[in-house]
Specification:
By secondary structure, the chain is mainly beta. It is about 10% helix and about 45% strand. Strand 5 and strand 6 form a beta hairpin. About 25% of the residues are buried. One of its GO terms (cellular component) is apoplast. InterPro entries: Allene_oxi_cyc_Dirigent (IPR044859), Dirigent (IPR004265).
């Protein structure tokens, strides 16, 4: 390579590398805004041996010291519960449901009152069609808990985001209501 061309190439290289090194490194993290925000309530009525007409969930697996009509002692450890709960737009159990929360939760720790959730919101209203799918740990003693939105169908095709759960009400070990604040970050 001739000397002038070599010098030109080196100068161009230095210009490019020094030009890029002067870019500030203290850039702010990009804050992502949700493309959709939703709030729903779901109402869970656990079968207790006496309420089969209005129960929306049932214990389907229990440890040897438990049974399938009363939640186990030791923070319900080992109980597996399936549910088909109504979803409403407000916190009234008797409001018209816009869909169903369908899935399961597993009480997965002896020392702490916590569960693991896997469920879908299946919509059947004029407002929404399709489903939103959720999965994650639910440390029940925390005021709010975040779980992952891992997909969906219909109006929520391949959506992803975060759902913040909060226990809105409970009556002993038979009824609880969850407020679900959903922030979707991938909307199609």
């Amino acid at each position: 390579m001739e000397p002038m061309r070599l010098i030109s190439t080196l100068l161009l290289f230095l210009l490019i590398t020094t030009g890029t090194s002067s870019i500030p490194t203290n850039r702010r993290k990009r804050v992502r805004e949700p493309c959709k925000r939703l709030v729903f309530y779901f109402h869970d009525i656990i079968y207790n041996g006496h309420n089969s007409k209005n129960a929306t969930s049932a214990i389907v697996g229990a440890p040897s010291w438990g049974n399938k009509t009363i939640l186990a002692t030791q923070n319900h450890f080992g109980d597996v519960v399936v549910f088909d709960d109504p979803i409403t737009l407000d916190n009234n159990l008797h409001s018209p449901p816009i869909g169903r929360a369908q899935g399961f939760y597993i009480y997965d720790k002896k020392e702490i009152f916590t569960a693991w959730l896997g469920f879908s919101f299946v919509f059947n209203s004029t407002h929404h069609k399709g489903s939103i799918n959720f999965a994650g740990a639910d440390p029940l003693m925390n005021k709010t808990r975040d779980i992952s939105v891992i997909g969906g169908t219909g109006d929520f095709f391949m959506t992803r985001g975060v759902a913040t759960l909060s226990t809105d009400a409970f009556e002993g070990e038979v009824y609880f209501r969850l407020r679900v604040d959903i922030n979707l970050y991938e909307c199609w």
